[in-house]
Amino acid sequence: MRVIYSNGARFAGGGIGNTAYHAVRGLHRHQQLYKLLCGSYRPTEIPSPQIRSLRYLSRVWRKTAVYDKSGWLDYQYRRFYDRWATQQIEPVDVYIGWSGYNLRSLQKARTLGAITILDRALAHPAYLDKLLCLESQQWKFPYRPARTNFLVQQEIASADYVFVPSPFVHHTFQSEGEDTQKLITLPFGVDTDRFQPVPQNQSTTKPFTVLFVGHISVRKGVPHLLAAWELLNWSQAELLMAGVVTLPAEIQHRYRHLNNIRYLGHVSDPAPLFQQADVFVFPSLAEGSALVTYEALACSLPVITTFNAGSVVQDGIEGFIIPTQDAQAIAEKLSCLRADDKLRQQMTMAARLRAEQFHWNTYGDRFAQSLATLVTG
Fold first, then answer.
1. Quick one: 113 exposed, middle or buried, by C-beta within 10 A (0-12, 13-18, 19+)?
2. Whole-angstrom Cα distance, residue 98 to residue 108?
3. What CATH code is carried by the domain that includes residue 213?
């Protein structure tokens, strides 16, 4: 089998580039990888002769685009990468393109006889737009849809299949009237060597610690987490918020009076934070399958999250699945876990066992096996 995999980010460089790395690593391990196309890359076990990239042009362009709040530079980069990737395509069995970067290349690969697959790690763009529009009305801040949304919808229509990471993403595609027969669900994974529990020093007294890791934004459900913290009004407890703050000023002002919250900014290695916390809370409104939930489980943390986070948490076993936009539910589950040491310890032990079922090697194997099934019928 010959497979081309295309992702316009920095391969193995964090974020979506890291997720792509584990997929491509699986293809390489199963001797399916013919060529990797990417914006730039960090050296890995993937042989460099099999890699084509834009190198420094990609890195400079993408770093510059971070400062463009309109999203125009990012959109232009994606279109440029797509045109470049289209020129690299040869006849192969399968072409896999990461969503938002591969409309023309998917179409060309299909004309050359390849099975085409869109790798989509987030909710359907139309569903996401509607959800965030409603949220902006509730919190009274302006919302502008991403420039790439229409592009992604065209990619969905062009691809033979779409890989999605969770039942939630599957649900959003179904809600938008997409053909669910073309969806293949593959949950993500976690590095269980890097993220693991550490023995707790029972003699050390510390406040009950609640942790959130991710962009501190509306989409991640942070306003509802802050509302829950206001309801609890706890002493001898703290809420750690690790991530870049992108909340609208209106919401930041609304909750600026809250005590016992530490904003840590971007944390390059969150493993020590997971290891010192008592509970992980991630009340996201829309994800694909949030990697931080896997990482929390691997560190033996009970997780309070939503169905929309796309996690592999089982309600009542490794944590709790709560409704979105429900501060009262967040507060109730936090109170439950703080008050019930026995339940928290049971979930702590179950969390690590659950994470071990989703090692990144397992993800890579499932990815490769899914392609083999599609090609052989």
1. exposed
2. 15
3. 3.40.50.2000
Helix axes 125-139, 167-175, angle to 10 degrees: 90
Residue range 180-211, pLDDT digits in tens: 999 999 999 999 999 999 876 654 678 999 99
Convert 298-352 into a string of H (helix), E (strand) and C (coil): HCCCCEEEEHHHCCCCCECCCEEEECCCCHHHHHHHHHHHHHCHHHHHHHHHHHH
- pTM listed for this prediction: 0.96
Residue 112 falls within a domain, yes or no?
Answer: yes
- Residue 270 has φ and ψ, to the nearest 5°, of -80, -5
Task: Report the pLDDT value the prediction gives residue 191, as an integer from 0 to 100.
Answer: 97
Domain that holds residue 170: 3-188+360-376
269 and 321 belong to one structural domain? yes
Longest dimension (CA), the chain: 66
Give per-residue pLDDT as tens, 124-170: 999 999 999 999 998 888 888 999 999 999 999 999 999 999 999 99
